[in-house]
Amino acid sequence: MRGRMPRPLADVAGIVLSLHSIKHTVAPVGIYRGKYEWANENSPVGGDCSLWVRSATLQLDDGQWQCQVTASNYDVQDALSSPPAALAVRVPPQSPRILFNGSHILPGQNITVPAGSRATVVCEARYGNPPAYIEWYLEKERLTAWSQTNASEVERPRVWASRSVLELGATRSAHGRQLACRAHHPSYPAPYYKDSYTMLDVTFAPVVSIVGADTSSLGSLEEGSSSLTLECKADGNPAPYIWWTRNGQVIATNGPKLMLAPVMRNHSDPPRVTWVGPDTVVEANLFSQVTLECKADGNPAPSYQWFHK
């Protein structure tokens, strides 16, 4: 046997390909008429027995190919075999699909997960040869916390099921962002990959703040003439329901805004200044000690000054 070793090949199912081998006097083998032909005008002239494989199929042609030369006679052990050449007949896998908690995520469905937890998301691309390569993206950011396994399909052992498992840490900033599973395969149409999408629905407790209650506006309110509008801001998912209370009692309002027009002392807890002391007239003996006390109840808390006229 002489010449060059068969080289590894890979082609899409259904096309014609050539396997090269150089040897003397051998005939192509096969039960399908016209499927395997000599590449050199149907004759191994000069020892070139390169073989045409017509209409390559997964069932018949995928696998390891060898060129063999039988022994010249039973007494001389001069049989030869070439090293194997791998022929992979490409089969495009199905479009990838995303699974969460064991269920297939259909187009338009979300993945709901609490903030601070970890979600295990699975992507599958099945019935392909060779196996698809799977990546994950959060918007345009490529994720790395995933692992992939490839296994032969039980009912079709010559094709593969590719399975990628992503461990995703759920954060508030990820809410509403798009999660994509991308399967790469040379038999897909250009650009040779297909995507499957879902949206992240990250739940989190509300963060509450009140707008309109700054010190400057509250300090200038006058009973009976001023008005005050307060708005409750609550950022949470799901969207929170907002109501107002005063002294434990629910106030009838329309939505997150509370309007007080005009403001009254019973709107304050505690109320604004209600009385000031001491009495206007205090009697005392000459050279005796007198204690004067000033009490004031107000909101904001009052300051004190004493004057003597």
From TrEMBL:
It holds the Pfam family C2-set_2. It comes from Diatraea saccharalis. PROSITE patterns: IG_LIKE (PS50835). It comes from the Eukaryota. It is found in: Membrane. Residues 96-198, 206-249, 256-309 form the Ig-like domain. It is a single-pass type I membrane protein. Coiled coil: none annotated. InterPro entries: CD80_C2-set, Cell_adhesion_signaling, Ig-like_dom, Ig-like_dom_sf, Ig-like_fold. The keyword Membrane applies. This is Ig-like domain-containing protein. Gene3D superfamilies: Immunoglobulins.
